[in-house]
Amino acid sequence: MEILLTVIFTLLGIAVGSFLNVVIDRLPAGRSLVLPPSQCDACGHRLSPGDNIPVFGYLWLRGRCRYCGTRIPRRILWVELLGGILFFLAFWRFGLSAEFAITAFWCCVFLVIIFIDWEHKLILNKITYPAAVVALVILAIDSLLPPPGLFTGRIFMPETSILSGVIGGVIGSGFFLVAALIKPGGMGVGDIKLGGLIGLATGFPLMIFAVLIGVIIGGLVAVALLLLKLKGWKDFIPYGTFLAIGPIIALLWGNEILNWYIGFF
Ligand SMILES: [Zn+2]
User: Fold this and answer.
1) Which of 56, 99, 127, 233 supports an S-S bond with 94, CB 3.0-4.6 Å?
2) Ligand 1 center to residue 47 CA distance, Å?
3) pLDDT in tens, 237-251
């Protein structure tokens, strides 16, 4: 049963990844997420159900449009695979639970942020604002439920998850606001909002871990790009892409690491 559910949720993650690709393609351009149905962006040919099968469709067509031969961006495959992998990890970690659903949801939100910032150097309000509202709703429901509420093993401040989320949001956005003030041009308004969202989604104190991971990954990549001379000091680096990796890792494993760390004292 467990194995069957794991397979089902992994496939669901791949299918959801396929939808996230539509979001990543269309949201920055302000196009409808529903209409028109999937079509090749180069030749406009409507895709058949067979072309549309996630992962396998891409591999079967060898990453090219069946009708005009234009290359399909490799990102399509990546996001589908990542959707499957993250759903698999979340189910493996939390089992059939509210925490699994919440973690899977945040993986989707941050995957979209990662790839839109990478491709367009944008963190869209159209994503951060509604996501912040969803975060508050989740935290409000959790505050009303008897412990452990929606989060089985999370170290929120006892029974005050809404406070934990709000404090997380304030610290998260405050951190990047200070960073933006210290070094103008590095962090943007989008990063400040993203920091707030990361705090709301993961809560205090887990958000410290989430932000730290994002900052470290972003810093390492920036240094690597400079050393390899792929980017110069003046070039723009989409930090949101790296920052948004933080909460995914923190939600999946941060709690375990924090518990282990606290148990140390
Ligand atoms: Zn085509």
Assistant:
1) 99
2) 9
3) 788 999 999 999 999
Q: Closest by alpha carbon to 198, among 155, 242, 157?
A: 242
Q: 63 alpha carbon to ligand 1 midpoint, in Å?
A: 11
Instruction: Tell me, in angstroms, the distance from the centre of ligand 1 to residue 50's CA.
Output: 15
Predicted confidence (pLDDT) per residue in 13-45, tens digit: 999 999 999 999 999 999 888 888 888 888 888
In contact, 242 and 210? CB cutoff 8 Å: no
Buried/exposed 214-223: b ≥16 CB within 10 Å, e otherwise: bbebbeebbe
Ligand 1 centre and the CA of 30: distance in Å? 22
Q: Which residue has the tokens 């996230």?
A: 20
SS3 category, 35: coil
**Exposed, middle or buried by CB within 10 Å (0-12, 13-18, 19+), for 13?**
buried
Spacing, Cα 67 to ligand 1 middle (Å): 5
The rounded Å distance from CA 11 to ligand 1 centre is: 26
Q: How far is the CA of 15 from the centre of ligand 1 (A)?
A: 21
For residues 17 and 122, what is the distance between their CA atoms, to the nearest angstrom? Answer: 20
Q: How many angstroms separate the alpha carbon of residue 195 from the centre of ligand 1?
A: 38
Give strand pairing partners of 46: 39
Nearest-angstrom CA–CA distance, 87 and 12: 8
CB 203 within 8 A of CB 164: yes
Which tokens go with 95? Answer: 């089992």
